[in-house]
Design goal:
single chain; mainly alpha; 2 strands
């Protein structure tokens, strides 16, 4: 068998002492920065989402506790009247809604086992939040599309998705397979 010695610089041979190009170095730095950012996001994004979700419900719930402060008050009252067959309405409906939203928000903010209970309370509030779509369609839809009230309700799809993400983190069960 014959061996051939190749010298650096010969066609197709890269010298072993070659330094990575500036572009390759930049790509390596970017990849390391992206990996570090991913680790940071994996650690903090869902806890921050949990706190933000809880804060949104706590704040909007507090607004409902004061008559005339929440712009959605007429819809809340009308929804409770429909859901309770006229048994609950007026300020009682507002106070029940305020209590549920504040309780859910605070429990979700606290986290741990409290967040699980808060998510259950939040699931019940979502029934009330979404029910005007079926119970009060004239308030939600106009001939040209969703009313401002309807848009207010439909944006809650983002809050529902956020709640599902948080639930995926705080609920007990087997770890996901990767």
């Amino acid at each position: 068998m014959t061996s051939v010695t190749l010298r650096p610089g010969a066609a197709g041979v890269i010298p072993s002492t070659a330094r990575p190009s500036l572009i390759r170095h930049a790509f390596d730095l970017e990849a390391r920065a992206e990996a570090a950012l991913k680790v940071l996001l994996q650690r903090w994004s869902i806890p921050l989402l949990r706190i933000a979700l809880g804060a949104v419900f706590a704040v909007f719930g507090i607004l409902k506790a004061f008559p005339g402060v929440s712009p959605i008050e007429p819809l809340v009252v009308a929804t409770w009247e429909k859901l309770s067959f006229g048994l609950v309405g007026g300020q009682t409906a507002m106070m029940l809604t305020a209590a549920m939203e504040v309780l859910a928000g605070l429990l979700i903010i606290v986290g741990a086992g409290f967040a699980r209970v808060g998510l259950i309370v939040l699931a019940v509030t979502f029934v009330g939040i979404l029910s005007p779509i079926v119970l009060l369609p004239q308030e939600v839809f106009a001939a040209t599309g969703p009313t401002l009230t309807g848009q207010y309700i439909f944006k809650d799809a983002v809050l529902i998705a956020a709640a599902l993400v948080v639930a995926g983190r705080v609920l007990r069960g087997p770890a996901p397979r990767v």
